[in-house]
Here is the input.
Amino acid sequence: MDRARESVASLLGVEAEDVLFTGGATEANNTALLGLTRARSDAIRHIVTSAAEHPSVDAPLEVLEREGWRVTRVGVDSDGLLDEGQFERAIASDAALVSILWANNETGVVQSMGQIAALARARGIPVHTDATQAIGKIPIDLRNIPVDFLSLSAHKFNGPKGVGCLIAKREWTFEPVLHGGPQERGRRGGTENVAAVVGLGVACELAERELPDRMRDYAELRDRLWAGIESKIPGVRRNGSATCALPNTLNVEFEGAAGELLLQALDVEGIAVSSGAACHSGSIEPSKVLIAMGRSPESARGSIRFSVGQGNDGAQVDYALSRLPDLVERARRAAGA
Ligand SMILES: Cc1ncc(COP(=O)(O)O)c(C=O)c1O
Here is the structure.
């Protein structure tokens, strides 16, 4: 556990004592948001976040809203980037906490976290970021970026499932969410999952060593995929900034296609993709991230996310490209386009 703590700290440029092991990023996000707000006794009951967060940030914020907190959800532009003017206006009325997703799980869009955190910290506001998708895919050095709380999950960068951590800088006090044990310096009660924690540490060591190679390899595969899609299939659009982006994620709208059907058809062919759509009481809700970027519900429903990672190669990308045109055609017919 000591070595794993050092490995996380070294990857992110933080002190080992600031690493708090959790059961994943969902727990880390809940701990940061609920723990920090519950430790505040002043009158500032306002949190600033974005309109394109992961559900594990949205849901605890909804809990806080029910407890009387005000939450401002700053919009994103059509590229998925945070509206910085709106953000500055939101924090100008003071806030107890800022929480902004570093890299989006659906589009791969990477926010200018250095700038965002600096704006908040200049006003003395603590900054939390869900960096789950960013870790192991882009360089992150908290010696240069004034983030106070950061959540991550090991399985997003080749570690085991069910373990993650919250970086929690010591200058901030927060209430533990799990009470009843002295573990993690009294900040998270309950015996740690030692085997998984060791796995997280190894994933961090590998990420630190291999990051430049991974970034190059992932970007090469992603770009090959996008170039092939663009040249073979008409009526496609890339969702999200192509420059402020993770190297491994590609979100594409296939105009007029039924995204969920395309996803299922690809699955049958052995190609695993995902859509941001969520199933609510039997109907398919379009991705709220794409809606926040100004896409219509139809555009959002026709969008799917491809991601590449360890073990993927050019032959697999070419296989996907050989199947896509026909499957997109069918998904368009099914949608009546
Ligand atoms: C951005 C982001 N935050 C949080 C999570 C939740 O991670 P976990 O399920 O490991 O708790 C995920 C997982 O999909 C994610 O992509």
Remarks:
- The longest strand covers residues 249-254.
